[in-house]
Amino acid sequence: MSSPSALEIVSRPSTERGHADHGWLKTFHTFSFANYYDPSHSGFGSLRVLNEDRVLPGTGFGTHPHSEFEIFSYVVSGELEHRDSMRNVEVLKRGDVQLTSAGTGIRHSEKTFGASPVHFLQIWAKPRVSRLVPKYFTRHFSDEEKTDKWVKVVAPVEAEGVLDKREGDGPAPVQSGVTMYATLLSEGNSLAHRLPLDGQGKTRKVYVHVVQTSGYNDGSSSGARVKLSGEGKELELREGDGAYIAGLPERELILENVGEGRAEIVLFDTE
User: Fold this and answer.
1) DSSP classification of residue 166
2) Bridge partner residues of 108 (DSSP)
3) Considering the entire predicted model, what is its pTM?
4) Can you give the C-alpha Rg of the chain in angstroms?
């Protein structure tokens, strides 16, 4: 994207994302991932991966290595069992956010726990420095906390209110320039997001994603629809859709639920 003086909004329709149905795994890739490659969608700022995964019971991602990425899981429904080489074993449920700062290298597995499929977002960000000591964090954010307001679920370690602790209140800490927000926006309600000042006047980057809470690849006209607007520009998103937004600091983006039922939305503000 260019460096606009005003707000710029560019659609990323779900129908154009990378997609794979492996039977046990149904997944959409917002950015290039695995066998899906599109040079026009290979990341955005520090954000490198945004996958929306559904995994059947009794299956999952077996033990595999990672390094030099910060990997976080945002659980939408079901239960996800995490195990890693740092001896962390945890079952994550709706509202849980789990962050692994892989650094110099870890091995982990993520599998469905229980009798129901798990639906979660898998997100990767690139840290500002390499060769970090691996760390693990979990946070929980209730539906009540997220209803009709933004909750900051991940933020840079130096940001105000961020605690570098395995568990606790507030956002999980990252060594990248990504801040992740989440909301459950009621039908007819709206929220604003103001692109933050960074002291340097640089163009800010935002990515918005509407979670597919009504079902996998539903494709119907029902369910959540979210209108993005700012500085005379508008774009409507359905579940699974996303949008790239760029603009100078202090520009304001409005998100309005214009569809049926509650909309679950995540927003990434990245340098």
Assistant:
1) S
2) 64, 84
3) 0.96
4) 18
Binding residue ranges for Fe cation: 64, 66, 108, 110
pLDDT for the residue numbered 40: 96
Strands of 170-238, DSSP E:
172-174, 178-185, 190-194, 204-210, 225-230, 233-238
Q: Which domains does the chain have, with CATH numbers?
A: 8-270 (2.60.120.10)
Between CA 143 and CA 186 the distance in angstroms is: 12
Q: Spell out the residues 6+ positions from residue 178 whose beta carbon is closer than 8 angstroms to its own.
A: 45, 46, 47, 125, 154, 156, 268, 269, 270, 271
Q: Which two tokens stand for residue 106?
A: 């870890």
Binding residues: 64, 66, 108, 110
Quick check: 189 and 148 in contact, CB under 8 A?
A: yes
Three-class DSSP category at 10: strand
In this prediction, the residues of the chain whose per-residue pLDDT falls under 50 are: none
What does DSSP assign to residue 271? -
Identify the three-state secondary structure at position 58. coil
- Find the largest Cα–Cα distance for the chain: 51
Cβ(182)–Cβ(265) below 8 Å: yes
